[in-house]
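Q: Structure for this?
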Amino acid sequence: MSEARKRQFAAMVQPHLAVLYRAALRLTRQRQDAEDLLQEVCVRAYSCVDELAAAQSPRAWLLRAEYHLFVDLARRRARSPFVTAVDGAELAESTPSGTAGPERVVEAELGHERVAVVWQRLDADQRALLALHAEGHGLDELADILGIAKNAVSARLHRARQRLAKLLGANAGGQPALNLLMGEP
Amino acid sequence: MNCETIDSILGDHRAARLASPERRDVDAHLRSCDRCAEAWSIHHVLASERFEAPPPALFERLAGGLDVIEAAPVRATARRARWLSPALAATALLVMAVTIANLPDPRREVEIANSAPIVAPAPAPIVTAPVAATPRAAPTFVAGRDYELAGRGSLPATSGGRVQVVEFFWWGCTPCYAFEADLLRWKEAVEPRIEVVKIPIAWNPAAELHARAYYAAEALGRLDVVQGPFFEEIHRGGNALASAGALAKFFARFGVDAAVFDATFNSNAIDTRVEEAKALAREYGITATPSLVIGGRYVTTPTLAGAPARMFAVVEELADTCEQTLCALLERASAPTREPGRETLDQLRDRAQAPVRSDPVF
């Protein structure tokens, strides 16, 4: 690429790389997939560098590209029988029992493991929304990224959390997700 | 304190910044409202997960993937490229990282080829002169609307130096039959830079029989003569060719002895080919025919891309993208390690025609 264009591209993208990368990791939960996703984002950003430069918030522009590319890719993969969802039986073997020891600590770590197991079963756009939100993007920014109203973001976030809670509960024999996450039997 | 307030506190990550009276209100509400308590805990778990920072040189790697979009003698590189295996892709990225480090040097084209010693001693590096970058128009077609990203699959990006386009098809499928004439015309027009390959799908018993027949025809060297008439026989002749017997009779018309046909049709080699075809269709999530896979990476169908003319425009644009990104990367990465003995005749011819600089540049 030309020097000037490369400099322009680097100036637009590099400051947001860490944000994009962490969001990609959250979305895909695989380093290689995260990098592949970012490569797609860069291809998109590079081919639309003028549009990106004119964007009010380049970060939101890039995150929007990442969001849409991720959802496209995930939907495509979801249709392939090669991608297998982790089922409840595997969960039972791979995670400690829901009844915690006497310490009853708030087991955020355990919560993370449980989330990781059911994560792929959320819809792609729910995964994307929860991931971007968890990365610290507030309702206003998410509304901008998704191109929908702020209260719609709030409602969708709530639905996504409910669905995640339901999946967590279903995976652990119907226990309320709250207990699972907070380590209370 | 109500549920909406809780949602907005969570939504804008204000939990940590709450003043203590407000915090008490929140706690009181959470104790009495399961809905919000659940939302709060889910949010807590998600937000407390920490992910690592980007690895070093990530930006350089990503930019390296882009560098080839505008640079590089694309046509010449595509001609020599084979396909992009993961290992080669990794090497390509490595080489690109070296390139980026040296970006300000206007002679970087030459430098890439000469970065060979880090990989293996190269037999007389072949250096093509830099070609002026061709301006690349912004993509006209959009992923998710005109085509879909398939992710990384097993189909190669290129074959014999040309971008590979695979048509998943079924002889018994009416849209495939309607599409065939357009496909053949287009195939001829793009022959120099795009290789069109067919893969039969085998979703149902009839399609599986036809897939076996396809590979049997290939094994018997009759594919070219059989292809068109097979479509005609089903769609115009009203003969479904839905049994091994019917197929043997059909092949007999093309001079294939029934016993030879049976032996080929029922051979293990054909089993293997059909299984491979099925696996590829599964891998690429093919759910309709005809579906075209471009460069092993993009998938489009008439539903996505529209009429054949538009569909071919989509395919060509994607083929350009493949050519410009993957192939150029591969070419640069593989040039230093190319073994003379393994070059194809085409490659040797290319070399003979390419402007060769044998003098050490640096």
